[in-house]
Protein 1
Amino acid sequence: MRKAVIAGNWKMHMTCEETRVFAAAFRPLIEDLPADRQVVIAPPFTSIPTLSRHLAGAGVSVAAQNVHWEEKGAYTGMISAAMLVEHGVSHAIVGHSEPRKYYSETDEQINLRARTAQRHGLIPILCVGESLDQRESSETERVIHRQIEQGLHAVDPSSLIVAYEPIWAIGTGKTCAAEEANRICGLIRGWVGHDDVIVQYGGSVTPATIDDLMGQSDIDGVLVGGASLDPLSFGRIANYQAPAG
Ligand code: PGA
């Protein structure tokens, strides 16, 4: 039985003070969370210690929004896996569409990031997904298959999360229909070739769409951007109620 992973990606939001306020409001909302799910939050690097301290004992795992592939060195602005592990970080997002787009990250670099993360005991959350153009020209499957194949070269699938994040659904308010997201998540599971891999959906997930998404057979969790910044809405998402069956 795969344990659902409900992850928040705060992107470049939340100062330490805002993180403290979030944690105080969020903690009581996840006190009675069912045992079938795990909550992960990826704050900006500077807010990691504040989040860990203020949610200590609340069962929330802390993720990094990226990790460099080298152990150390002259890489201004980057962060190493060892630096994250030292702060109790357990997961690292790699291959998110924003660094792919703004910093031209390649599948090869993303693969190196995932492998370095695993070497340090971090669970990579590999993001994959097609653009609107690619979807409209029927390239969705080909693009995602390539991202999986190249991104996961020599990556251990037993310690891995893959997030299907159609680029056209990120930050746009357009959620992918639950059945279509489920279909792609099922394909991803097959391409990864490991039945127990956690496959998430991400892209404009809200309290209004979460129950339907989590009711799908191949969606094992969500990666949430905007709606994870508000404790009430992320609390509702974490407390999703999937229809029985
Ligand atoms: P969104 O972002 O929920 O704001 O669409 C999702 C993501 O980028 O992971």
Protein 2
Amino acid sequence: MCGIVGYVGSRQAAPIMLEGLKRLEYRGYDSAGIVVCSDEGLTLCKTKGYVDHLNEMVCNGDALTGSVGLGHTRWATHGRPSDENAHPHLSDGGKIAVVHNGIIENYAQLREMLAAKGVTFKSETDTEVAVNLISYFYEGDLLKAVSEAALRMEGSYALGILCEDCPDTVVAVRKESPLILGIGEGENFLASDVTALIRHTRDVIYLEDGEIATLTKGEVKVYSRDLVEVKKKTTHIDWDISAAEKGGYEHFMFKEIMEQPEAIRKTITPRLRGGRVVLDGIDFSPEYIKGLRKIYIVGCGSAYLVGVVAKYNMEKMLRIPVETALASEFRYASPLVGEDTLVICISQSGETADTIAAMREARRLGAKVLSIVNVMGSTIANESDYCVYTWAGPEIAVATTKAYSTQLAVTYLLTLYFAERLGIISDESYSELVAALQMLPEKVEEILKNKEHIQYLASLYFNKDNIFFIGRNIDYALTLEASLKLKEISYIHSDAYAAGELKHGTISLIEDGTLVIAMASYVQLLEKTVSNIVEVRSRGAEILTLTTQSAEEQISHVSDNVITIPDAHEMILPSLAVVPMQLFAYYVALSRGCSIDKPRNLAKSVTVE
Ligand code: F6R
């Protein structure tokens, strides 16, 4: 989704912003632009296409002189990708420039109002409405004009604003779209996320909803909606910059797949102390847990699919009803949520618009919200009642891998934590599970060592047009993720079916040569899955099966090819089974020459509805 960078200092602003925009590319975009402000006024350059093209147009930034500026990568919402619709946008008359992330929902009414007052528009965007609204209220005080405009804009926005009357100042405002301020020495920064500014500073301020900031080279001030100055906490970012770079790998996705053992270790180890699960900041009483009528798990995409796995594990162990819901559905479904419901919101970015809305709705209805989030200081982490961070480090590839795996790991910790609190797990089973969790990173490492086998399998199947995944129980939950990963980055059509459901309709799709990937790690239902494999095989399907080492022999009789994973405790098997499927999707996409880290039409951080 759209990315914003801003700079105010003594250096040439354009090269700094171009470098920041390169780092925001992973969010997904279709056009890019920058504007700088100097005593000569505002100078702007924007284009449909990539930052590299913008870079050429402005001679790596040398062509734009000025030490205050804003940059933007646009992911089209209102209006197609084009030079005109690219940001920054100027007010009619050219005095004010704006970059924007989000959607201004009442833009049509505002546009009509402004047009009636004689404003002319050059683009189809809601952003041009925002800049003209600010300009409409501008009477020499930019901060006041921004505040007046913000009061009238509905929807979500993070805005960076420049005005030629105050060439040493950047103004920023946010509502429901992320925006952070970077505090430097004699220079300050603005960005949609930390990756864009970590090369320059590690000290950041997270702007909250409704807050407005002014940045000059010597000072950053933050104000509430009604322009009362607020004191903000500065947070020091301590992750290593190399974590956001490829480090010799061809793709971020591959690097992130390979980082999973370490990411899982970092997420689990600090929470296993003295053989017990300790979740800092979380202290549910047994009475509260016993009184829960339901646990809801809410998220989007793969984060939602983590919930689908967790539902199987939690219901089985806790005997509490667990319902999974897509955040985009939950928020408008009048969910049956109240004080006796715990809502678990899962999100890597912590900024997914639908998940934020679902979280707010759940809290409004009286439920407690526990979030599982990767990005520190993000909206979901800040607003939920409890937050368990995944320590996956920055995830850059659009398709999630290590965030999925660490989210899964947190759901195991939570399940164990609840079980212990409820007193429904024996000491022996508890210790067995803790030991299984401790061994998880090594088992993932073992799978990664066999990546060449998966690469070979991908070379056999990369030119299929359709691929079907089948599985039962947690394997079914995993087929959903495996299928999503594959279609997302390889553009092969694929579907995931509960294996037992095939003969109720979808088996009609099977014909000679159709590839069916059977996930059969859940050995309790192995016989059943084998029957389903035989059903599709006898109708011409080619079978690739994933199973555990001990079940390999049984499975190999009914499969054309087999992938094995180490035997492990049933609860943690999904963390093992997902890894070959991530590798399979990766190698298939690689063989097809796809844009793996930035698949077409997709954005990393979906900050609009
Ligand atoms: C799929 C993928 C997406 C995200 C989804 C939620 O590979 O990455 O489906 O899982 O957009 O994003 P977060 O976790 O940031 O809320």
